[in-house]
Amino acid sequence: MKTKLLITALTCLAASVSFAQEAKVGGDAHAFTLKDTTGKAHSLADFKGKFVILEWFNEGCPFVKKHYGSGNMQKLQKEYAGKDVVWLSINSSAPGKEGHVTPESATKTIADWKMDSTKILLDHDGKVGKLYGAKTTPHMFVINKEGKLVYQGAIDSKATANAADIDGAENYVKVALDNSIEGKPVPNASTKPYGCSVKY
Predict the structure, then answer these.
(1) Which of 68, 96, 106, 141 has its CA 20 to 30 Å from the CA of residue 55?
(2) Parallel, antiparallel, or unpaired for β 149-153 and 119-122?
(3) Which domains does the chain show, CATH number per domain?
(4) Confidence (pLDDT) at 5
(5) Which residue in 113, 95, 88, 97 sits closest to 37, CA to CA?
(6) Nearest residue to 141 via CA among 9, 22, 1
(7) What does residue 72 show for φ and ψ, rounded to 5 degrees?
(8) pLDDT higher than 80, residue 19
(9) What are phi and psi of 182, to 5 degrees?
């Protein structure tokens, strides 16, 4: 009986620790280090004092293709690169799962899709994705200059894979960035992400 109680207690403790680890809006963004497509390691701390966007990315996902095929994501990336914002696209698809990329295939995707993200980072063991609670592709996170998470959730307000729905949608990421850059609070700081599930 005591053994069963101990196992139950440890299971609950592990679950609570795991839950507590997920990044929360208003709290500090969790530190991490990941390698890019060239094998170079990048830490979140490298971008201290800058706004940082984390975008969970799966090139096989129709919801991701909605925003890249239309040029919507690249337009955002280019606009905010000009405002000294760091944009990190993160691939957490495990080997053998949909959307998994190699450094070589990711480099080709960057060129073919004319991506303007600062880097594609490879998270194939899923540790960083789980640390942030990334659930879908895309799932967007905005970190301010003080290292606080100020937005997490969907890219916009129309949860479809239809590129025609981009027009007229409220772009939550743009709103969060513009408000944060101006020193204003972020409305709708946490929304429900939509897309394909992250293939851990």
Answers:
(1) 96
(2) unpaired
(3) 23-197 (3.40.30.10)
(4) 38
(5) 88
(6) 22
(7) -65, -45
(8) no
(9) -85, 0
